[in-house]
Amino acid sequence: MSAAVKVRQGRSPARNRRRTEQDFQIALVRLLDMILTPATRFFHVPNGGYRTRAEAGILKAMGIKPGMHDVVFLHRLQFGDAIVCAAYGLELKTNDCDLDDNQIQAHADLATIGMPSAVARNIDEAIAHIRSWGIPLRMKDTRVELAA
Fold it and tell me: pTM of this prediction?
């Protein structure tokens, strides 16, 4: 039986955890689409998920790097006439999941070039990190109610 068939036959605890992190990320993205100002952009780095060996090889050859943040923010800063772009990384984790070795190394490597990063385990933590980076939001209350 191939690995692809095994993955699709049942839900392992790791797969359920990924689904929970996916749900968390989808909820966060929906909120970010509403509350970020035009000075900030974000994107998802799709490192996770099942890949065949061929797909993994192609992505590696194209430059995918293990351990990158789930969401990267690019924020426009202006100092007089100078405009610069600051980058920030946010890793999303469920309460029972920690960073793996690749993530720890990647986040450390990015910190050496000045890219701040944080780990959020819920929407409120994600918003608190975004605010701590000085990214303005179109909301005053950081408490967020999510539909079930």
Answer: 0.80
Overall size of the chain counted in residues = 148
Distance in angstroms (rounded) separating the CA atoms of residues 100 and 128: 23
Buried b (16+ CB within 10 A) or exposed e, 120-129: bbbbebbbeb
Identify residue 84 by its one-letter amino acid code: V
Distance CA 136, CA 82 (A): 19
The letter for the amino acid at 38 is P
Question: What pLDDT is recorded for position 50?
Answer: 81
Token pair in block for residue 53: 């060996």
For the record, the structure tokens of 96 come out as 């029972």
- Going through the chain in order, the beta strands assigned E by DSSP cover 40-44, 71-79, 82-92, 117-120
- The pLDDT, as a whole number, for residue 18 is 58
Position 47 scores a pLDDT of: 85
